[in-house]
Amino acid sequence: xxxxxxxxxxxxxxxxxxxLDPRAKIVCTLLxxxxxFVQNSLLGYVIATAFLGTxxxxxxxxxxxxxxxxxPILILLLFTVVMNLFLNKGGETLVSFWIFQITxxxxxxxxxxxxxxxxxxxxxxxMTFTTTPNALTDGIEKLLYPLNKIKVPVHEVAMMMxxxxxxxxxxxxxxxxxxxxxxxxGADLESGNILQRAKAMVPILVPLFVSAFRRANDLAMAMxxxxxxxxxxxxxxxxxxxxxxxRVAYVIVLVYLAAVFCVGRFVPFSIWIF
Length: 274
What we know:
Blueprint: H1 16-19, H2 22-38, H3 42-59, H4 63-68, H5 74-87, E1 93-97, E2 100-103, H6 104-129, H7 133-143, H8 154-184, H9 194-200, H10 202-225, H11 244-266
Antiparallel strand pairs: 1-2
Helix pairs in contact: 2-6, 2-7, 2-11, 3-6, 3-11, 5-6, 7-8, 8-10
């Protein structure tokens, strides 16, 4: 399960998605995620599926990496589907047993919510797979730059996000090493009930926290030794510049949003949740 977490990982490839400006990828990803929640029709999700599939194909990121990133949210996905399946009432009753009822409306809500969660993770994964942590940090800092006018420490916020993204793969690797070391010493991490498994995780969490604090302290000392003083007056080795392909990406995403909006509002044969 640890190795299935893909947050913060970068997949090197030569694709048009990799070459896009990080600001364009961040904004386009946010617009795609918004589109998943502003429409609720079957045809709209067909368009979203075609759009996401095209982006995955253009990114040259193997589909198995995208699917791998969905495994950590499987429990959350199942919980969301079950809760929406039984708690949403309305429409024709499809199945009824004891105190539980599955209605047509509950089935629609649970299916569409599952699709939303999967597409949300997949769309976010594409952005992180095709953008290096440094580029992602620069893009966030540029997009938030106007907040400097109201004394928001934009550079510090972007730096913290960059450090967090860099630490995620390192801590996952460290967790995997600690788990293997504990198993080699005879620890049983997989058998027993939930409480026993939670208790077995204590020998893993303690050294993991110690390692994380040690790495954080080493990083702070290294930054202080190099006289790091924040973003004021700092220049970029690779300044961000918009190109024609970035403008084309914005136009394509806006056309996609318009298509989804029109389908959700005006196409009569759409299947609605509500």
